Amino acid sequence: MEIQENRVQEKTQTRAGYPQRIARLLLGLVLFSIGSYLTIQANIGLAPWEAFSMGVSTATGTSYGNILVLSGFVILLIDIVLKEKIGFGTVLDMLLIGKFVDLWRWMELVPMMDRFLPGLGLLLLGQVCICVASCFYIGAGFSCGPRDALMVALGKRFPKTPIGLIRGLIEGSVLLVGWLLGAKVGIGTVIAVFGIGFILQLTFKLLRFDVTAVVQEDLLQTVRGMRKEIAAAEK
């Protein structure tokens, strides 16, 4: 019964007006970038995706944001193979989050931590931001970002596996690549790897968010829907 209620709730959210849904999407992307930035500034070991992007960035001399865009495109191709919908949110996630992180780093909004306890607090705060952000932008119904689309696609194919475990396995894999490329790995990394699945599961439960029940639109559906909404408003 509770799952059915969640499905109805998320479908109702997806049917909200496009301005509200776009605002929810953008808020989620900004929160996600802030979460990623905070995990970097924690300086006690990078979280998996940050380790991957920073490792490739260091190895290639390309900015962190550009690596996020390029890796997002590669993952996008995998999502297409897995037949996950590619929508407005997928594209904006791929293009904006990395650039937002580059912006926060350039602005130096938060100093790099030089002690463990403040770094730990900042890391956990960043992880919570990322999980809350996922609820916002996935729930907007414009399709997930490339990385979360992969999580959702695998969640649908293995429905008996907790979504937190799937997320943890994905992030453990990219962490290994980042570490091999020289990214900083420490106690914070261990916390992020084993903590992200738990925090994600707890956040989704507290917000009563069923990630697999959200009705997602692809790009074509969004264009058609926006045309209908504009036409209805003009009458």
Q: Would you list the SSEs in sequence order as H and E?
A: HHHHHHHHHH
Output mean pLDDT.
84
What value does the Rg take, in angstroms? 18 Å
Structural class: mainly alpha
- Intertermini distance: 40 Å
Extended strand count:
0
Helix content estimate: over 70%
Tally of alpha and pi helices: 10
Tell me the major beta sheet.
none
- Chain oligomer state: single chain
The fraction of residues assigned to DSSP E strands is under 5%
Low-confidence stretches: 1-14
Sum up the overall morphology in one term: globular
What layout of secondary structure does this protein have?
Blueprint: H1 2-14, H2 18-42, H3 48-60, H4 64-81, H5 88-107, H6 116-139, H7 146-157, H8 163-180, H9 187-206, H10 219-234
Helix pairs in contact: 2-5, 2-6, 3-4, 3-8, 4-5, 4-7, 6-9, 7-8, 8-9
Describe this structure in words.
The chain contains 10 helices and no strands. It is globular. It has 235 residues and is mostly helical.
